[in-house]
Design the sequence.
């Protein structure tokens, strides 16, 4: 059995979905699902205070990047002591999690057999399914990986086929960061389309773009989804002030029609693993409640209401 260290929440979930949970021997500081992984040794930490307001997080992250520094620190001694055969990480976003570059210093002087490093780079929905195959291949479980992906894609296809029957396709703005504003990118536009909506900002396969507030006011979307990267539902609710206190906010169609939805971006939309299907379900049942009821409301998402 391989000894696996996962340095990304989504790869931890992929590993567990493949039945590799008992082979995990270490995790990142952000890996929290399934619940049992929280007992694993932690091998990373953030260099910034994630508890400060969103604008301060953005400022500190940008400063580190400008200085050519990583946002994360790898505990090289702990990682070495765990003697992993396989390390799972990502190269999709230097702000989201540890990258191969961050690992270089931690494993460069290891003597003996160096661990295999599998670095994932999902940009579109299909890339996420392909990543299941990459992790499965590294673990010698190709058939199991293919079977799991088939089940997930069948769920996606079923929702897409149902949503196509709905003639009304609301115009949707997805907010990936509040202060400053950032729209959802990568797989988010695809999910909106599959759920029966039209994504106003962001392009499939491209990183989340910055969004000028004026563009949001001018677009006047039918629905607004807010799921900041790394924030759960409670944190998202608490961070809404910089957006909803703008004088233009109350004039938006989505606000007047009570179609502003807050969601858990940390658990779902910004975690490219098996819960992408749950993310699609959340979008579908919020956009078309007469057509879909998956039971995520109140847990994975809620309607925003003025205080």
Sequence:
């Amino acid at each position: 059995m391989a000894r696996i260290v996962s340095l990304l929440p989504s790869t931890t979930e992929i590993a567990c979905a493949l039945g590799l949970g008992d082979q995990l021997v270490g995790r990142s500081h952000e890996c929290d699902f399934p619940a049992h992984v929280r007992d694993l040794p932690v091998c990373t930490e953030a260099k910034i205070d994630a508890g400060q307001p969103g604008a301060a997080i953005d400022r500190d992250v940008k400063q580190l990047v400008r200085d050519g520094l990583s946002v994360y620190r790898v505990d090289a001694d702990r990682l070495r002591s765990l003697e992993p055969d396989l390390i799972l990480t990502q190269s999709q976003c230097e702000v989201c999690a540890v990258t191969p570059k961050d690992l270089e210093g931690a494993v460069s002087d290891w003597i003996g057999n160096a661990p295999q490093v599998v670095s994932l780079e999902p940009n579109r929905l299909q890339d996420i399914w392909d990543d299941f195959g990459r992790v499965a291949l590294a673990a010698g479980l190709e058939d199991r990986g293919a079977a799991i992906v088939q089940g997930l894609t069948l769920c996606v296809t079923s929702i897409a086929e149902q949503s196509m029957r709905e003639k009304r396709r609301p115009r949707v703005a997805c907010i990936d960061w509040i202060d400053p504003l950032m729209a959802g990118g990568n797989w988010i536009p695809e999910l909106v389309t599959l759920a029966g909506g039209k994504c106003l900002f962001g392009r499939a396969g491209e990183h989340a773009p910055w969004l000028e507030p004026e563009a949001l006011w001018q677009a006047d979307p039918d629905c607004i989804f807010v799921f900041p990267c790394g924030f759960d539902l409670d944190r998202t609710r608490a961070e809404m002030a910089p957006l909803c206190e703008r004088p233009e906010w109350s004039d938006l169609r989505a606000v007047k029609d009570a179609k502003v939805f807050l969601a858990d971006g940390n658990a779902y939309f910004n975690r490219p693993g098996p819960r992408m299907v749950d993310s699609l379900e959340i979008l579908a049942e919020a956009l078309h409640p007469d057509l879909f009821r998956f039971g995520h409301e109140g847990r994975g998402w809620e309607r925003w209401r003025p205080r």
